[in-house]
Design a protein that fits this description.
By secondary structure, this protein is mainly alpha-helical. It is built from nine helices and no strands. The chain is elongated, with a radius of gyration of 24 Å. The chain starts with a helix and ends with a helix.
């Protein structure tokens, strides 16, 4: 009888969590920045509900499960950051430097030059929108309101401009190869990670 009662509580809580699954997933993704990790976090919380149901005196089970997802996602990201810190690459010859190798500096300088040239070649309005949004963190709706244009136009111009910048950096990276290794270069991380 007690086992059946516990099983029904577990099933009820699981059903409640499954109804909130899209919100749980969105929360985990916002914290982790990765859909795959977010899905793993939510699945782990659901498994916890199956193996150990919540106490019946919890007033808002959905909010409690949401907090479980937030905590687990945050813990996961902290652990990931810690693990990445453990495996810092050493420079050749045993000397470590936080400034990177000369090749990395050259690659970043070339990428920045290609990026700058692309931004300077943009039409004046597009360039203004791009600089305000990406360099000054002005939201797209504010840019649209101040310019007296639609948000869709601002979004389209920013997306096209950003695609051109990324393409210019990638093209520069494709043209410049490592003389010793013959490998392709990739754009500097700070340019690849800029949001649209």
């Amino acid at each position: 009888m007690i086992a059946n009662s516990s099983q029904s509580i577990s099933n009820e809580q699981l059903q409640t969590a499954l109804l909130a699954y899209p919100k749980l997933l969105a929360t985990a993704r916002r914290i982790t920045g990765c859909m795959t990790i977010a899905e793993d976090v939510v699945q782990e919380v659901l498994l916890q509900l199956v193996s150990k149901p919540l106490k019946t005196d919890i007033a808002a089970p959905t909010s409690y499960v949401m907090r479980m997802v937030r905590n687990l996602a945050t813990d996961h990201m902290r652990r990931l950051q810690y693990e990445r810190g453990l495996f810092v690459e050493e420079q050749v010859g045993g000397s470590t430097s936080s400034y990177g190798s000369p090749e990395e500096h050259l690659r970043e300088a070339e990428g920045y030059r290609a990026f700058r040239c692309t931004v300077e070649a943009m039409p004046a309005r597009t360039r203004k929108f791009y600089e305000e949004h990406y360099f000054d963190d002005v939201p797209q709706n504010i840019i649209a309101k101040e310019a007296g244009v639609s948000c869709a136009l601002v979004c389209g111009l920013l997306r096209e401009a950003h695609s051109r910048c990324l393409a210019a950096i990638a093209l520069d990276a494709d043209q410049a190869t490592e003389p010793r290794h013959g490998g392709r270069r990739t754009p500097p991380a700070r340019f690849r990670e800029m949001r649209v």
